[in-house]
C-alpha cells in the first residue's frame, strides 16, 4: 500500500509545539525569538516566500523584521546591512532571500552573515560543521525532509538513497545528511546530477529517492523501484491559465504514475514545502536559545 506523507499535517503539529515553547520562553521573562529577512528587489517568488516566513513568525509568536532594499543597492551597502544585524543583540536569526541581483555575489553575502545567526544554514562554517557532524544550523529544506522521515518512522539505515540534483541548498546537503551516523541517516548515498550517466538505472536501484533537480514531473514510474520511498523537493511554477494566480506549482515527480508503485511519497503541494518554513522557525528558536553556538 502506498502512503502519502502529509507534510502539511506534520508541519502544523511541529508549529504548535514551537509556538508552545515560545510562549514558555516569554512567560519566563525572555524576549521572543527574532527573525530578520532581507529582501532585495521584487522577484515574485521571493516576495511570496518572504511573506510566508513573516506570517509564520506572527503565527508562532516570533518577532520579525523585513528589510527591503532596492535592486540597485550596492554590494557594500548590503554587506553593511548584514553586519548591522550581526551586531544587534536583539536579532537572533538572519536570512537573505536568494536570488540576489547579478551585481551582488551571494557567496560574499552568505559568508558575511555571522554563523551563529545563519538560520538558513548557508554559511560555509555551518555546512562544514554539518559535514563533520558537529552542531550546526541545517538548511531548512533538508531538515524538513529528515523530520518527515522521522515522523513516519521510515527506516533509512543500510538503505540506498539516490539524491537527484546537487544544488547547494538541497541536493548537496541532503546527500551529506543521509550518510551521517544518525537515526535519519546511515544510508549508502548516490548523489546524481545533470551529467550523471544512466540516471534512470541509478534511480531504479534506490530504496529512497530524493528528487531535487527542478524539472517538473521528471521522475516517472520508470525511475522507481516498487516499494521505494519517494521524496519530492521540486517546486516549479508552471503557467496554468485555469488557476487564479495564472500558474500551478509542480514537483519533480510525476505523482500519478509513481504513487501506485512506491511505499511512501510526498505530494506537491503539502509535502516537503510546508516543512521548510517550520525548519527555519526551529533554527530561529535554537538561535534565540543559543543552543548551537
Ligand atoms: N531562495 C530559495 N530558497 C531559499 C531559502 O531557503 N533561503 C533563502 N534565503 N533564499 C531562498
TrEMBL record:
Entry protein name: Bifunctional protein FolD
InterPro entries: Aminoacid_DH-like_N_sf, NAD(P)-bd_dom_sf, THF_DH/CycHdrlase, THF_DH/CycHdrlase_cat_dom, THF_DH/CycHdrlase_CS, THF_DH/CycHdrlase_NAD-bd_dom
Catalytic activity from the UniProt record: (6R)-5,10-methylene-5,6,7,8-tetrahydrofolate + NADP(+) = (6R)-5,10-methenyltetrahydrofolate + NADPH; (6R)-5,10-methenyltetrahydrofolate + H2O = (6R)-10-formyltetrahydrofolate + H(+)
Ligand binding (NADP(+)): 165-167
All copies of domain Tetrahydrofolate dehydrogenase/cyclohydrolase NAD(P)-binding, residue ranges: 139-289
Domain of life: Bacteria
Lineage: Bacteria, Pseudomonadati, Bacteroidota, Cytophagia, Cytophagales
Family: Belongs to the tetrahydrofolate dehydrogenase/cyclohydrolase family.
Keywords: Amino-acid biosynthesis, Histidine biosynthesis, Hydrolase, Methionine biosynthesis, Multifunctional enzyme, NADP, One-carbon metabolism, Oxidoreductase, Purine biosynthesis
CDD domains: NAD_bind_m-THF_DH_Cyclohyd
Job of this protein: Catalyzes the oxidation of 5,10-methylenetetrahydrofolate to 5,10-methenyltetrahydrofolate and then the hydrolysis of 5,10-methenyltetrahydrofolate to 10-formyltetrahydrofolate.
Subunit structure: Homodimer.
Involved pathway(s): One-carbon metabolism; tetrahydrofolate interconversion
PROSITE patterns: THF_DHG_CYH_1, THF_DHG_CYH_2
Tetrahydrofolate dehydrogenase/cyclohydrolase catalytic domain sequence ranges: 5-120
EC number(s) stated in the UniProt entry for this protein: 1.5.1.5, 3.5.4.9
Pfam families with a match to the protein in the record: THF_DHG_CYH, THF_DHG_CYH_C
SUPFAM superfamilies membership: Aminoacid dehydrogenase-like, N-terminal domain, NAD(P)-binding Rossmann-fold domains
